[in-house]
Amino acid sequence: MENEKRRAFPESFGSPAPLSIMKLVEIDCGIPFLSEEIVFNILKRLPVKSLIRFRSVCSLWKNLINTPSFISEHLGHSHLQNPSLVFQRNLVGDSLNLYLLDRDLHLRDVHNGPSIDSFRSARIVGSSNGLLCVQIDLRGVFPPTILLWNPAIREVIQVPRSRTINDFRFDCVLGFAFSPIVNDYMIVTTYAKTGDVVSGVEVYSLSTNSWKGVEFTPLEAISFLSDCVCVNGSIFWVTVKRGLAFDGGDDAYFIVSFDLAMEEFKLIAPPPLSRNIGAKLAVYEDRLAILYYYCSDAVDSRHTFIDLWVICDEGIGGGCDARLSWTKKFTRGPYPCYLHPLTIWRNRIVCDVFAIQTCEDEPGEEEKRSDEMKAGMYLFNLASDDFVVFDSDRYGDNHDVFGYFECLVPVSNIHIKNL
Fold it and tell me: Which residue ranges traverse the bilayer (predicted)?
């Protein structure tokens, strides 16, 4: 029963609730003139907050809303109709400050549960199908504490600690995603001594609430450089391979992929990447993408360009060192600022923009700065030159950003009060 409760949702969206349940809902709740399909379709469109209240209407409505089939159908609708961004403002010593940007570009605070807010070293490290993965780094404690949190239904679970590695000299890199093939939420943790290459990998399953070690031979001489993105049941990171490039040269950059269902790592050669180019993984039209951002001396060292590369569906190689082909979709810029891409969301590139600072004004410098962009979080439209900017005084200019939508997926019986 415990494992059954932890199941995320059925393998596919759109599975209807049992007709017998729906018919009883009609009769018991006094809605005799609506068919079961209509009732089901009305409920699945409601926000989570309303559905939580409707659980009290009658036991049959409560049972319906708690069924895996309804949770799956509601999740699918929320994913398509109510995409949001959740982002965390990063301030040294600050608590977990979260903000939510909805599809209408309305920005609001997310009030945190006390179980998370009490830790000033907590940060969001992943988001998948309405669940957030939170890492809490406490001095002298290794491995870090990990939570899985559903803010919409106020449930949280503390992931059991791995006992394989408990040496504080190790660093760990997390990846979090849902696998539609195995129907499970999973956390991937790679361990490495500080500044060194990978020396261990473990995978956590929400359905079994346990960890296990996995083979990581393809990660020989690999160091992880970035946070992850998740695409179609696989997790991806930007990494550097020490002295073992495809062409036999020195250190080279690669993208590491981990297939959650197959539990396999692969190395992917990225588009040409040099040390003076920043790289940020993203998802574009349900495919892995990478954003390169850089300054060009040909224009002005204070101006930034962004290139969007998208991986092709068909690879031109295989094995551990998979040479997949890439397509360059476009170049945007120059933007009169330093910027850092964070993600792609609803055909917009979300960026932190940093103000240009000069030590001393020179003749004409004030006029130059008048064209520069102010610090803050920007959303650049991929189809035009339009952009939206948010108040940096309130929300800062240093964020972690994740796609998010509300869901009913349970993680435990533990409820966060006063969320």
Answer: none
Q: How far apart are CA 132 and CA 307, in angstroms?
A: 29
Phi, psi of 262 (to 5 degrees): -85, -15
Continuous H helices in 246-319: none
Report the distance separating Cα 132 and Cα 151, nearest Å. 8
Residues of the chain with CATH 2.120.10.80: 82-404
Instruction: Name the nearest CA neighbour of 132 among 360, 386, 315, 400.
Output: 400
- CA angle 307/310/311 to nearest 5° reads 140
Q: What is the pLDDT of residues 220-255, one digit of tens each?
A: 888 888 889 999 999 999 988 876 544 455 678 889
Report field, pTM of the whole predicted structure over 0.90: no
The end-to-end CA distance of the chain, in Å, is 27
**Under a CB-based contact definition with an 8 Å cutoff, are residues 236 and 224 in contact?**
no
- Distance, in Å, from the CA atom of 208 to the CA atom of 194, rounded to the nearest integer, reads 30
Would the pLDDT of 256 be above 70? yes
| DSSP secondary structure string for all residues of 208-234 | TTEEEE---GGGTTEEE-S--EEETTE
Residue whose token pair is 């600050």: 94
Q: Return d(Cα 97, Cα 87) in angstroms, integer.
A: 8
Q: Which of 48-62, 241-255, 260-274, 285-299 has the least mean pLDDT? A: 241-255
Those residues whose C-beta lies under 8 Å from the C-beta of residue 274, and which sit 6 or more positions away, are none
Query: Residue 5 and residue 344: Cα distance in Å, rounded?
Result: 33
DSSP 37-91: HHHHHHHHTS-HHHHHHHTTT-HHHHHHHHSHHHHHHHHHHHHHH--EEEEEE--
- The residue behind tokens 């966060």 is 416
Fold of 82-404: Neuraminidase (2.120.10)
Task: Give the Å distances, CA to CA, from 53 to 18, 61, 138, 289, 407.
Answer: 22, 10, 37, 40, 15
**Is pLDDT at 2 greater than 90 in this prediction?**
no
